[in-house]
Write a structure and sequence with these properties.
The chain has about 270 residues and is α/β, with parallel strands linked by helices. Helices cover about 55% and strands about 10% of the residues.
Length: about 270
Amino acid sequence: MNIKFKIATKNDSLYNLIKLLEDCKNDSKSQAIAYSMDFSLKDFYSLSVENEKLNFLSFYYDKKIKTQQKNINNFLIRLNNMVKKNIFDIENKFKNIFGEVVKDIEVTGLLWPSMICPYNLKTNEFMVHYYDGVKKEKCMQTVLHEITHIFWWKYIDKLFKNEPENQKRHAPNISWLISELVVDSILNENDFKKYLETEYVAYKKFYKIEINNVNVMEHLRNLYKDNKFDNFIKKTYDYVKNNENIFALYMYNEPKTHTYKTNNNEITNIL
């Protein structure tokens, strides 16, 4: 296993930004992109021609990179040094979880100006924000979160061969949701804590969900501690699918009200 970082090309950044903004229209991800790059979503979505969208994003990309170039270069050096110093520890921890999936894989983090971090399972690349002014621990938390996704999906492909459902890796669907939920158990129950800024390594909304008066994330951590990894995965799939009507409230509507009841199950405090 190897981890390296470089600055994403402008073309790759613009392509990924347009794709994300089209896929995530009117949700929190598009808002985060606009916030981190200082542009108006209303102005972007008023454009209908792709070249106009490219020119629009290109202007804000150039502006952001120009003002932050020194920070980006410093962050790149810092990230590569941090990983070089800790690569054997990180590799061993991931090997203990995912086994042979980790062997001989080179993972590349591409620095870009957006706070949203997509990943590519074909190239083993993920995008990471350069975190101007943020604690250094925060960057490693994001890096480990995204690397966990890459190894998770490779392991899932091996575990559930020829099952179409597991190819549905994008929101909103159950397989995507599970991939985001399990990051918490994997990182917090395998002594990654020295690299984490906080124990809340998954979406913060997940930590507020309760089903039958049991916190969802605590339940999954207990499943992780009490089962071998393959059994943990299968039981997590069963748990989420059995409560799909509840989790759907998060996936499709991102609700902000406090309590829902469905089929005698209760979900509370989604913020």
